[in-house]
Amino acid sequence: MSAEVVYRFAAQADVAAVLALWRAADAHPTVTDDAAGLQVLISRDPQGLLIAEHDGAIVGSVIAGWNGWRGSLYRLAVHPQARRRGVATELVRRAVDDLRRRGARRIDAFVVTADDHALHFWDSLTALGLDRDAPKTRYVVHE
Q: Residues near 119 by Cβ (< 8 Å), separated by ≥ 6?
């Protein structure tokens, strides 16, 4: 990538591009991966969706949720043409820093356990203070 990557919080105008990024990145789809869901996220928490932009195109995203008690990272995605350039690591670093500034003392990340590439990436982030918490299992209520 020749030009600098710009990191910023998403706006309503970014919703379609973020959804396109998730499709291009082969992110594991969920029931909340739609325009309405992202619009609510951005409206309720303007700092909840951090994006990476290169040459005017959104090439990465991470949701950094803060509920007043714990921070959580979701939907880390980087466009295939922008991978292996530090975009994902920088998104996570910025998201963690922002959640800490907002008061988060504990931050977790939700990662698809069947995605070996994702697990390898997250396992590489021990320098950011992230460690796998393998003994826990997540339960989800679906729509």
A: 111, 113, 132
